[in-house]
Design goal:
This protein is mostly helical. It contains six helices and no strands.
Length: about 140
C-alpha cells in the first residue's frame, strides 16, 4: 500500500507539472498575458520545486519523512484548490502554481529514499559468506 501510494503521488505530480503545456496559448488569451508569461506558469513552479527539493532533503533528516510528505501534500492541495478558483488574475494563478511546485519538489525528493527504505536488498550470498568468515 505504501509503494502504491508513492507511485500514485508520483503519477499525479507528473501530470500536474505538464498539465498546462498544451493550453498555454489559451491561458495567454484568457488572462491577457503574452505567451512567455503563460509558459512561466509551468517553468517557475518547477524551479521553486527544485529549491524545495534540496531543502526537504535536509529537513527530512531532522524531522522525518512523514512530516515532509504531509506538508508537501498540503501545499499541493492548497495550490490545486486555489487554481480551481482563479479566473482572471495571473498573479494569483502564478502563486497557486508556485505552491504546487514547492509541494512537488518536496514530495519527489523523498521518493527514492522512501523506496530504498521499504525494499531493503540484502547483500549478495557470496559477500554474506565472506563476512561470516571474517567475523
Amino acid at each position: 500500500m505504501a509503494f502504491g501510494s508513492l507511485m500514485l503521488g508520483t503519477a499525479v505530480i507528473g501530470t500536474l507539472k505538464t498539465l498546462l503545456v498544451t493550453v498555454n496559448s489559451v491561458i495567454a488569451s484568457e488572462l491577457s498575458v503574452d505567451y512567455m508569461s503563460a509558459t512561466a506558469l509551468t517553468g517557475a513552479p518547477i524551479m521553486f520545486g527544485a529549491f524545495a527539493a534540496l531543502k526537504s532533503q535536509m529537513l527530512c533528516h531532522s524531522f522525518g519523512k512523514r512530516g515532509i510528505y504531509l506538508g508537501s501534500s498540503l501545499l499541493m492541495l492548497i495550490g490545486a484548490l486555489w487554481n480551481m478558483h482563479v479566473y482572471d488574475s495571473y498573479a494569483q494563478f502564478m502563486v497557486a502554481r508556485i505552491f504546487q511546485g514547492i509541494g512537488w519538489g518536496m514530495f519527489e525528493s523523498l521518493i527514492s529514499s522512501s523506496i530504498a527504505d521499504m525494499f531493503f536488498v540484502s547483500t549478495s550470498p557470496r559477500k554474506a559468506y565472506f563476512s561470516l568468515l571474517i567475523d
